[in-house]
Amino acid sequence: MLQKQLASVLEIDTSMYSKMERGDRKEKHEQVNTLAKLLKSDPEEFLNLWLADQVYPLVKNEQQANRVLNIVQENREVYGK
Prior knowledge:
By secondary structure, the chain is mainly α. The protein contains five helices and no strands. The longest helix is centred in the middle third of the chain and has 17 residues, at 43-59. The radius of gyration is 15 Å and the shape is elongated. It starts with a helix and ends in a 7-residue tail after the last helix.
């Protein structure tokens, strides 16, 4: 698909979509779902990758990154999910 077509489906302009492709702008949760449906892909997998992309910059330089991620996993109820 052309950027123009994908941008239209996401209800954004082509320049905004281009920024998303380059990594200059983050996608929104609902845009990830829309893309997954449009591309007939697993929405859960798209969301997993999107969330990982959100978390990685926060922990990439931390030695205890794995431990912190394990704590989040173990305490999901505490964090509200």
